[in-house]
Amino acid sequence: MTGDLVADNQQHRIGRMSGHLIHDVTFGGGLLGKLKERSSFSLEQDQVGLSLWQLTSFHVHLEGNALIFKSISLQQDDDRSRFQLEPTATSLDQAATLVMKQPEASGCRVVGSAESGPASEAQCGDTQPTAT
After folding, report:
1. Contacts of residue 33, Cβ cutoff 8 Å, sequence gap at least 6
2. pLDDT at 103 (0 to 100)
3. Residue 20: enclosing H or E segment and its boundaries?
4. According to the model, what pLDDT value does residue 125 have?
5. Potential cystine with 8: which of 13, 38, 71, 130 (Cβ 3.0-4.6 Å)?
6. C-alpha separations of 51 from 8, 14, 34, 54, 86 in Å
7. Regions of the chain short of the pLDDT cut 50
Protein backbone atom coordinates (compact mmCIF):
# COMPACT_ATOMS: atom_id res chain seq x y z
CA MET A 1 0.00 0.00 0.00
CA THR A 2 1.13 3.50 -0.69
CA GLY A 3 -0.48 6.78 0.25
CA ASP A 4 -0.31 10.21 1.82
CA LEU A 5 -0.91 11.57 5.30
CA VAL A 6 -1.37 15.24 6.16
CA ALA A 7 -1.36 16.14 9.85
CA ASP A 8 -2.04 19.27 11.86
CA ASN A 9 1.12 19.52 13.96
CA GLN A 10 -0.36 22.12 16.30
CA GLN A 11 -3.30 19.97 17.42
CA HIS A 12 -1.78 16.55 16.64
CA ARG A 13 -4.65 15.58 14.35
CA ILE A 14 -4.80 13.79 11.03
CA GLY A 15 -6.25 16.21 8.49
CA ARG A 16 -6.21 14.01 5.41
CA MET A 17 -5.18 10.45 4.61
CA SER A 18 -5.38 8.41 1.43
CA GLY A 19 -3.94 5.22 0.09
CA HIS A 20 -4.22 2.59 -2.57
CA LEU A 21 -2.93 -0.93 -3.06
CA ILE A 22 0.04 -1.19 -5.40
CA HIS A 23 -0.22 -5.01 -5.50
CA ASP A 24 -2.98 -7.54 -4.97
CA VAL A 25 -3.34 -8.60 -1.33
CA THR A 26 -4.27 -12.22 -0.70
CA PHE A 27 -5.61 -13.91 2.42
CA GLY A 28 -4.94 -17.60 2.99
CA GLY A 29 -3.00 -17.86 -0.27
CA GLY A 30 -5.96 -16.40 -2.13
CA LEU A 31 -8.35 -19.15 -1.02
CA LEU A 32 -10.00 -16.97 1.65
CA GLY A 33 -9.90 -13.74 -0.28
CA LYS A 34 -8.09 -11.20 -2.40
CA LEU A 35 -8.15 -7.42 -2.71
CA LYS A 36 -7.20 -6.08 -6.13
CA GLU A 37 -4.42 -3.55 -6.56
CA ARG A 38 -6.65 -0.68 -7.66
CA SER A 39 -8.55 -0.68 -4.32
CA SER A 40 -8.29 2.65 -2.50
CA PHE A 41 -9.49 4.76 0.40
CA SER A 42 -9.34 8.38 1.51
CA LEU A 43 -10.60 10.36 4.45
CA GLU A 44 -10.52 13.96 5.51
CA GLN A 45 -11.42 15.66 8.74
CA ASP A 46 -11.71 19.36 9.42
CA GLN A 47 -11.82 21.51 12.49
CA VAL A 48 -15.46 22.52 12.96
CA GLY A 49 -15.16 24.14 16.39
CA LEU A 50 -12.66 24.94 19.08
CA SER A 51 -10.68 21.69 19.50
CA LEU A 52 -13.50 19.85 17.70
CA TRP A 53 -12.70 17.86 14.56
CA GLN A 54 -15.21 15.93 12.46
CA LEU A 55 -14.85 13.47 9.61
CA THR A 56 -15.95 15.44 6.54
CA SER A 57 -15.10 13.09 3.69
CA PHE A 58 -14.74 9.32 3.49
CA HIS A 59 -14.24 7.30 0.30
CA VAL A 60 -13.65 3.54 -0.04
CA HIS A 61 -13.38 1.68 -3.32
CA LEU A 62 -12.62 -2.04 -2.93
CA GLU A 63 -12.59 -4.78 -5.54
CA GLY A 64 -11.74 -8.39 -4.86
CA ASN A 65 -12.86 -11.93 -4.23
CA ALA A 66 -13.95 -13.90 -1.18
CA LEU A 67 -13.69 -17.67 -0.90
CA ILE A 68 -12.20 -18.01 -4.40
CA PHE A 69 -15.34 -17.45 -6.51
CA LYS A 70 -17.39 -14.70 -4.87
CA SER A 71 -16.69 -11.26 -6.36
CA ILE A 72 -16.77 -8.34 -3.94
CA SER A 73 -17.15 -4.67 -4.84
CA LEU A 74 -17.64 -1.88 -2.31
CA GLN A 75 -18.02 1.71 -3.47
CA GLN A 76 -18.67 4.15 -0.64
CA ASP A 77 -18.53 7.93 -0.95
CA ASP A 78 -19.61 9.97 2.05
CA ASP A 79 -19.24 13.75 2.24
CA ARG A 80 -20.44 15.64 5.30
CA SER A 81 -20.87 19.37 5.77
CA ARG A 82 -22.92 22.07 7.49
CA PHE A 83 -21.65 21.31 10.99
CA GLN A 84 -22.97 23.70 13.59
CA LEU A 85 -22.65 23.88 17.34
CA GLU A 86 -25.83 23.66 19.38
CA PRO A 87 -26.26 25.26 22.81
CA THR A 88 -24.77 23.14 25.59
CA ALA A 89 -28.20 22.96 27.28
CA THR A 90 -29.65 21.04 24.30
CA SER A 91 -30.90 17.64 25.43
CA LEU A 92 -30.40 14.45 23.45
CA ASP A 93 -34.12 14.35 22.58
CA GLN A 94 -34.03 17.96 21.35
CA ALA A 95 -30.95 17.27 19.23
CA ALA A 96 -32.56 14.16 17.73
CA THR A 97 -35.69 16.16 16.86
CA LEU A 98 -33.60 18.86 15.16
CA VAL A 99 -31.71 16.30 13.08
CA MET A 100 -34.81 14.38 12.04
CA LYS A 101 -36.52 17.58 10.83
CA GLN A 102 -33.73 18.11 8.28
CA PRO A 103 -32.97 14.76 6.57
CA GLU A 104 -31.41 16.48 3.54
CA ALA A 105 -28.94 18.25 5.82
CA SER A 106 -27.68 14.95 7.24
CA GLY A 107 -27.25 13.36 3.81
CA CYS A 108 -29.88 10.72 4.63
CA ARG A 109 -32.96 9.83 2.69
CA VAL A 110 -35.84 7.47 3.35
CA VAL A 111 -36.02 4.50 1.01
CA GLY A 112 -39.38 2.79 0.49
CA SER A 113 -42.95 3.96 0.10
CA ALA A 114 -46.38 3.45 1.54
CA GLU A 115 -47.00 0.71 -1.03
CA SER A 116 -43.86 -1.18 -0.03
CA GLY A 117 -45.03 -1.44 3.56
CA PRO A 118 -42.99 -1.13 6.75
CA ALA A 119 -39.72 -2.03 5.03
CA SER A 120 -38.77 1.64 4.63
CA GLU A 121 -35.28 2.47 5.84
CA ALA A 122 -32.90 5.40 6.00
CA GLN A 123 -29.83 5.44 3.80
CA CYS A 124 -26.97 7.80 4.57
CA GLY A 125 -24.14 8.78 2.28
CA ASP A 126 -23.68 6.98 -1.02
CA THR A 127 -23.01 3.38 -0.02
CA GLN A 128 -23.32 0.76 -2.72
CA PRO A 129 -21.97 -2.63 -1.62
CA THR A 130 -22.48 -5.40 -4.16
CA ALA A 131 -21.62 -9.06 -4.21
CA THR A 132 -22.10 -11.48 -7.08
Report:
1. 26, 27, 64, 65, 66, 67, 72
2. 60
3. strand 13-20
4. 47
5. 13
6. 12, 13, 40, 10, 15
7. 106, 108-123, 125-132
